[in-house]
Write a structure and sequence with these properties.
- The protein has about 100 residues and is an alpha+beta fold.
- The chain contains 2 helices and 4 strands.
- It has one domain.
- Helix content is about 35%, strand content about 25%.
- A 4-stranded mixed beta sheet has the order 3-2-1-4, with helices on one face.
Length: about 100
């Protein structure tokens, strides 16, 4: 069975900031993350149920999320990826031999 999570970027309740709705499609658990740090923690916590093996994360966003919020998330995720790669000493995404 493939472990697939869905990450939906939405506006928060007062529509002043973004949040990420993280869903485990295996058992339909849903958590709301208001920061990338919360997202990291929740991703790890949910992923621990599968030995840390998550096959896919499907990203989407609500239509009303402004571009500058998406840019903020993209940049934050790139920074997190760079930190993890530095600790590991290798890239997280391996290039396939061509």
């Amino acid at each position: 069975m493939a472990v697939i999570f869905e990450s939906l970027v939405k506006l928060n309740e007062d529509r002043t900031a973004w949040c990420i709705e993280l869903k485990d499609t295996t058992d339909n658990r849903v958590v709301i993350c208001n920061t990338l740090e919360e997202y990291q923690e929740q991703m790890k916590e949910l992923g621990d149920d599968y030995g840390g093996n998550i096959d896919q994360v499907i990203w989407s966003k609500d239509d009303d999320v402004p571009f500058h919020f998406m840019d903020e998330i993209r940049q934050g995720m790139a920074n997190i990826q760079a930190e993890i790669e530095e600790k590991l000493g290798e890239p997280l995404i391996k290039k396939e031999d061509t």
